[in-house]
């Protein structure tokens, strides 16, 4: 009997491209109704994992299951929708014509007006797809991805080419769609988006699972803190050699020292340098710092 308790399952999945191991014994499960951010450096195996989940690739070993069945079965049943980084739109069709064309391919699609409203495209319904900006085209791709009312939605770098306002509108639309108990998995390089818009964060590095939990849990587990102060025109040389410091960032006249031992770093900063330290703040690690630490540890 097939298990249907999880929306997505990777059971010891590996994928080889010749001698290259893109996904290495990956096991994870995602419960229905969860919004999950998938993080990883370039070449980490994110895109391969998404293609395995869509049934575009077959695993070299292990099994991928979607609501207890195969990805191919889920796609045929209209249970999965995908918004990938690239995908040409038919330039001669209007937004309304294009969305209606795609929605009619599904057995139980969302209504056309609902799709236009959900993707914030009502005012653009009569514009030809070839005349859309990059951000507008992304919103159309989102509408096409949800046209069949899929139970699982995959988004690969969904806010690429969007300006700040368009990003805010997109995430509002995504949350509206997910509110119906659907499962959303999105891959992104935008750490603030993963932090703010996910229930759970999965980090993949070198094809393996590096971390899995809420953004808060991953930040806490990664440990480390950040010491920031006004550097001004003073030299930054030697800051990376202070006790406990794992990384140094200097921007806008402010130095940020990522450290595993803030007490030792502060002692070294005050006793071991001649810097005039002002505006000092001490904060916990953000998701980007946690991500960098996790991916460094996986090398």
TrEMBL record:
Superkingdom of source: Bacteria
Residue intervals of the ABC transporter domain: 8-231
InterPro entries associated with the record: AAA+_ATPase, ABC_transporter-like_ATP-bd, ABC_transporter-like_CS, ABC_transporter_ATP-binding, P-loop_NTPase
Annotated Pfam families: ABC_tran
Membrane topology: Peripheral membrane protein
Any one GO cellular component localisation term in the record: plasma membrane
Keywords: Antibiotic resistance, ATP-binding, Nucleotide-binding, Transport
PANTHER family: ABC TRANSPORTER ATP-BINDING PROTEIN
Biological process according to GO: response to antibiotic
Protein name according to UniProt: ABC-2 type transport system ATP-binding protein
Major place of residence: membrane
Subcellular locations according to the entry: Cell membrane
CDD domains, per the entry: ABC_DR_subfamily_A
Molecular-function GO terms, alphabetical: ATP binding; ATP hydrolysis activity
